[in-house]
């Protein structure tokens, strides 16, 4: 019998075969590795952290008619099928239900050390070199321009502006990516986020320089 983490890895790989690149197995693998590394310092319950990292994007509401419950329910059904303790399953389910960036606008939601660690790991994958690559991949998929000096980023960022944006991909840096360093939960996550944040700032500096033919 394989250990439950290995069983979960196999299940997630299989389930995400053919998933879009933003949330494919490699995204999960990066979040899993980051969550494990952060947890080694922050010392949460490792099993909860690893299960939640592996299962957090198992069914994207975007491709399920906006249904936010399919993912958490799928995770629950799977963890029950491999006989994971009920308290662990409940905790993992709560983490998955509460993790998305969208939900971070809602007050009074569930939190725990394990939730904070997995959320930090997921947010880290949206910034730095990989975050930049993911943003332009998303923008390309939506056929958005890279940058348009005539279209400024949305200022007062809100749930609505985040949802409705059809702006150039560079605007997404100001609407989300550059805000993430101040949204990190753990000290360990903050340190890593700051380094990736500086990388993005220097990327933008280079980008604008090249745009003007100056660099
Ligand atoms: P999450 O997985 O954190 O819930 P999303 O599903 O919103 O995030 O986005 C997946 C990836 O696509 C992230 O790296 C995110 O930065 C990027 N992305 C989302 N919306 C946009 C956008 N409007 N422009 C460019 N990139 C985007
Ligand atoms: Ni994710």
TrEMBL record:
Q: Name one Pfam family in it.
A: HD
Coiled coil (UniProt feature): none
User: Which N-terminal residues, if any, form the signal peptide?
Assistant: none
Residue ranges of every copy of the HD domain listed in the record:
24-127
User: Which regions span the lipid bilayer?
Assistant: none
Q: Cross-referenced InterPro entries, in alphabetical order?
A: HD/PDEase_dom, HD_domain
Family annotation (PANTHER family): HD_PDEASE DOMAIN-CONTAINING PROTEIN, SUPERFAMILY HYDROLASE, PUTATIVE (AFU_ORTHOLOGUE AFUA_1G03035)-RELATED
Q: What is this protein called?
A: HD domain-containing protein
